[in-house]
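Why do we care about 3D structure at all? Because function follows from shape, and shape follows, mostly, from sequence. That is the central idea of this module. The next example makes it concrete: a single protein chain, its amino acid sequence, and then its structure expressed as tokens.
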Amino acid sequence: MTGQKIGREPLIRIVKRDSMVRWQAWLIRIAAVVIALLISAIVSAWLTDGASMGYFFSGLFNGVFGTTRRIINLFQSTAILLCIALAVAPAFKMRFWNIGAEGQVLMGGLGCVICIIYFGGKIPEWLLLIVMLVFSLLFGAVWTVIPAIFKAKWRTNETLFTLMMNYVAMQLVLVAIYSWVPQGTSMVLDVFTIGTLPKVGGSDYTINIIIVAVLSIAVFLYFRFSKQGYELSVVGESENTAKYVGINVKKVIIRTMIISGLLCGVAGYLLVAGTNHTLAANTVGGRGFTAILIAWLGKFSPASMALTAFLYAFIEQGTTQVATNFSIGDSFSDVLTGIFFFLVIGCEFFINYKIKFRPRKKNMAENAAEEVTA
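And the structure:
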């Protein structure tokens, strides 16, 4: 019709994929990891006045697999990160945006230290470890159930609520340390010689790895086969659908967050009793936020999260060694880890979407040829 403007089809369109074969998706992810490593090698060569890329890869793998201790440290870092990712996975699977894992893990560690200070030396060591675990679970659960109740009862914004509680937890730890440490000292807790998990196979970290492996299997079974796992998935898909089929949404929210808090308490327990043997405001060290990325990239599957956590720990530990070899500084490792995350997260775009270009208009000769052929 005259007077109407005919819209042109855009040159580039982004279309959501219906589905992608699993092996193709993993192939894209592997390609992203390889590209991230190559870019990191190029960046390191550029920053070190032409050091070979081979020297980067040599330092990377030597920093991870060079000694038995480094290998154990790799699996230890993976275990702690995976434990926190397992803790946030139930909440995120339910579409409860829990950004407070940093503080929840820290509160679990605070519960541990309280037991060591007030019960250490007064009860047997084995009983002390059990009491420490109970306090860690309790502190972690309390710190998650508070925002859960506010969300379930008054529909508060859980993202801001849990985020602010991180800072409250840090300040509580600082206040506790201030009350325990004598005035005029460095205001740092000494390393504890009691309340430490026993060595297994000559390593302090083996028991941490075993505990997290057991938790991974338990979370997998919980998601896949339990009624509660099914209910939190339904709530995550649609609260209205959950209410329609008779699911108590408020109960599911509170219960799921308690489970997340218990797992955060375990992570705090492992950090204090099995890893650092002390507590500080920065004990968690940002793992609470990194675990969110691990959970998302792993699609809330314990097996996929374990692989993602392993890759992250590998990159972080290896690039730290490279930075030491090149005498560049600690920030170098953070830059390379950021490159890794940027590309791995970016590859998810190509897994979920595809780019379509506007088809080229056929000229009159091509149209005429087609008509003759027809």
